[in-house]
């Protein structure tokens, strides 16, 4: 299916008229088009390209656009055009060469007749637009970028769309009253919680800007919220996106910097929220399970600030108050995106707190579960399978289309990860914090040493995955939680093993080097047992083992645990089990 053409037309009335007279599909055929000018791009679809182009010329924000590139195909229909429009918006947003002027109306990732054939055409359309200078990188290069993965222009799954729509309805119902509310979006690794968070912020900003549809249409998923009246409700609204993890927060700030209507200042730390002199109308908190209780912070300044903020907000230094309490005190409405099973440090919100949040939201009708796996290329429950394997439960089985391998030789696994990186990019080694970080103070020192192979931990925390030295380093949990890889080479270190006498999986405190990951909490009178810390370390390995989109490779240091886990991750074994 290669019947398309890309026709370039100056965005001026006389040229548009000449083009339309020569092209019978200009005013009565579904097409997709891009409008470019300066550093901006707009992507649209229409049954009447000539009429739509005239509307765009009358729009103040599009007056600087100079050229239309119209994709015409005799086989196009409305569904295919909506899909191509969404495809190009996502790629423009991920490429970063242009600022995307599109409003975030919402597109569901919906199937339609012969979609696979059309998507082959879409790739060819991209190649032609790239040849015209509209893209600076290939599709794989764009799809590997944080700008693409964290784009606010993602096509939503059905359950993501339902969550966003229901949250919006609740927000608009409550904002005109004195009501307060807490909504919870709950999902396992890879279900798209961060996508929902970023999408919500962009959608609310666009609605608040009062940008009405240029033609009456119900094609856009959230078009009803752009009707008159909704923008007025959001007038002057103060919205913030709170992200506890430094690395993910910096990546999202970069996306907001390149997206019209968004600003990096909207992306906040919990400390910035607590210290803000103003109240927020709505705070959206991604990875809310990583909010902190009163515990040892990353620096003395943060320990001091935790006390100061709590005193300011509650009148005294109540050590039972958490960053979640700050969030609730500083905002009328909250949307919390969380997974109770992704807490990785004793200082994270305890399980009883996140469980109570889920229960409260469920009783209030504001709980939105995400269950569809967006990351792992497998239809089976791979995330649950990994957790069961690490906990000594479950039955080995296969995962069709997913490259799952187990290695007894670390050097071989590293060579295979490097080969996958050469082929697809974003293939990295990651590990539990089971080796000291010697290279933090001695840049010539090695950290992770296995089978005579000497490697260093990640030499940067922010945007480590894309850093030029990352393929030759080992990433910790703090560099990859919330991110995607194409392939993850996971090293399960000596911090966990099998007790020969009991046969149980155990935590080895002396082999765990995250100081804040095992420190007791004298302020709250909490002493963490090895069993308590084992649960958190298992959570860490579940996160590491669920980063890979295309595949996961596994090496286990402890010999007894290696024998225990081999049947679950050995490709030959699980393929046999699957058959």
Automatic annotation (TrEMBL):
Listed Pfam families: SLFN-g3_helicase
Domain GIY-YIG, first and last residues per copy: 28-103
Superkingdom per UniProt: Bacteria
The name this protein goes by in its record: GIY-YIG domain-containing protein
Organism expressing this protein natively: Agrococcus baldri
């Amino acid at each position: 299916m290669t019947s398309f053409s890309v026709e370039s037309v100056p965005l001026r009335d006389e040229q548009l008229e000449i083009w339309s007279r020569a092209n019978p599909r200009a005013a009565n055929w579904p097409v997709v088009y891009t409008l470019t000018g300066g550093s901006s791009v707009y992507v649209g679809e229409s049954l009447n390209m000539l009429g739509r182009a005239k509307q765009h010329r009358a729009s103040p924000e599009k007056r600087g656009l100079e050229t239309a590139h119209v994709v015409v195909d005799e086989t196009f229909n409305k569904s295919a055009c909506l899909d191509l429009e969404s495809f190009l918006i996502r790629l423009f947003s991920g490429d970063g060469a242009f600022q995307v002027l599109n409003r975030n109306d919402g597109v569901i990732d919906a199937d339609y007749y012969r979609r696979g054939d059309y998507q082959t055409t879409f790739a060819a359309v991209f190649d032609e637009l790239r040849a015209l200078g509209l893209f600076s990188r290939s599709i794989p290069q764009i799809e590997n970028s944080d700008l693409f993965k964290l784009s606010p222009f993602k096509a939503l799954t059905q359950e993501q769309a339902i969550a966003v729509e229901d949250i919006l309805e609740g927000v608009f119902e409550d904002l005109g009253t004195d009501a307060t509310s807490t909504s919870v979006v709950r999902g396992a690794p890879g279900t798209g919680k961060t996508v929902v968070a970023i999408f919500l912020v962009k959608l609310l900003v666009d609605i608040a800007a009062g940008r009405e549809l240029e033609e009456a249409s119900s094609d856009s998923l959230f078009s009803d919220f752009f009707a008159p009246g909704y923008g007025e409700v959001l007038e002057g609204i103060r919205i913030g996106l709170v992200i506890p993890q430094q690395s993910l927060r910096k990546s999202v700030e970069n996306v907001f910097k390149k997206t019209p209507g968004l600003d990096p200042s909207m992306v906040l730390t919990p400390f910035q929220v607590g210290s803000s002199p103003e109240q927020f109308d709505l705070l959206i908190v991604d990875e809310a399970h990583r909010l902190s209780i009163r515990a040892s912070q990353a620096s003395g300044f943060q320990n001091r600030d935790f006390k100061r903020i709590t005193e300011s907000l509650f009148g005294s230094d109540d050590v039972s108050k958490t960053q979640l309490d700050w969030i609730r005190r500083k905002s009328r409405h909250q949307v919390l995106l969380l997974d109770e099973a992704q807490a990785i440090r004793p200082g994270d919100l305890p399980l009883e707190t996140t469980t109570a949040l889920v229960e409260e939201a469920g009783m209030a009708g504001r709980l939105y579960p995400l269950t569809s796996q967006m990351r792992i290329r497998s239809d089976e429950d791979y995330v649950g399978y990994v957790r069961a394997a690490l906990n000594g439960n479950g039955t080995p089985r296969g995962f069709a289309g997913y490259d799952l391998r187990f290695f007894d030789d670390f050097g071989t696994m590293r060579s295979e990860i490097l080969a996958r990186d050469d082929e697809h990019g974003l293939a990295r080694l990651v590990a539990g914090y089971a080796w000291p970080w010697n290279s933090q103070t001695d840049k010539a020192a090695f950290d992770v040493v296995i089978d005579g192979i000497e490697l260093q931990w990640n030499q940067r925390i922010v945007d480590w995955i894309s850093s030029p030295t990352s393929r030759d380093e080992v990433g910790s949990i703090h560099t990859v939680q919330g991110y995607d890889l194409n392939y993850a080479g996971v090293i399960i270190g000596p911090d966990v093993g099998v007790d020969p006498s009991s046969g149980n999986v155990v935590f080895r405190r002396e082999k765990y080097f995250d100081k804040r990951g095992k420190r007791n909490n004298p302020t709250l009178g909490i002493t963490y047992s090895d069993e308590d810390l084992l649960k958190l370390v298992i959570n860490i390995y579940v996160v590491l083992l669920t980063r890979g989109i295309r595949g996961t490779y596994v090496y286990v240091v402890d010999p007894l645990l290696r024998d225990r886990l081999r049947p679950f991750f050995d490709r030959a074994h699980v393929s046999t089990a699957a058959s």
